[in-house]
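User: Hi! I'm working on a homework problem where we have to compare a predicted structure to a textbook description. Could you give me the structure for the chain below?
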Amino acid sequence: MMLQWNRRRFLTITLPALAGFPALAGAAEEEPEKPLRFGVIADPQYADAVPKGTRHYRASLKKLEDGIAELNRHDLAFTVTLGDLIDHDFASFEPVLSRYGKLRSPHRIVLGNHDFDVTDDEKPKVLEKVGLKSGYQSFVHGSWRFALIDATEISTFRYPAADPRTKEARERMEQLAGQKQSNAQPWNGAVGTVQLEWLESELTAAKAANQRVVICGHFPLLPADNPHRLWNAGEVVKVIERHPHVAAYLNGHDHQGNYAHAGHCHYVNFKGMVETATDNPFAVVSCYRDRITVEGFGPEPTRERLS
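Assistant: Happy to help. Predicted structure tokens:
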């Protein structure tokens, strides 16, 4: 597998041909292949608040307007936001969602830690507010299956302070801290056993259907020393490693962006939109039979060449 930036600022992920996946092996065609394209936005993190450090919360509304206007110029199957639509305050959702209402492609949402930075009585209302029945979901477009995971389900922020699940999550984080794990942070979370079983079943179903898979989450899985990664990132990576038809894992959370490659899977961390006053990172991802390309806008991406 090779990974490189071309001069048009595309990150190209080359995928291996898979035995048993003849439809995805990149066979010659009489006509140029039409890729499946989708938009990616990470961490708008809007709030009606003054800037804090490098985070410009109010500026995210204009960035969303401009980014969505550009994404609407592309033929997209959908657009996914990789978590943290807001920074804090339940009232922040409405201005953000009204901007997303201008999207011409369906909007898929991954839950992030800041989406639950609301009062305890508002926490149970977050999923309904953003139009979700479940924090994790899957859907299929052509020969591609997409699995959106939810690592807020085990966390110190998802549920009210008095909820037993909050206490259990705090204890889990303390165990990680006792093991000197850098990701033992209150802004991270974990994927539960039932969801891991669901992910395994989704990947198994994708193999049976000759589909490649892209997994989207909020929190990074790799690199292994990233303090922003899931509490149980290793467990999720092991699931991915068992399924060579998983092409990529896409996430936000670490606003600086990142990249890792392990086995057959590429782990791409998109930059946070909130992180600057004017620069506006977002992307268009194109899925071909034999490769994935990521066209970055603004400071996404900054890496010039990877191999």
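For your comparison, note the following. The longest helix spans residues 193-208. The chain has a mean pLDDT of 91. Good luck with the assignment!
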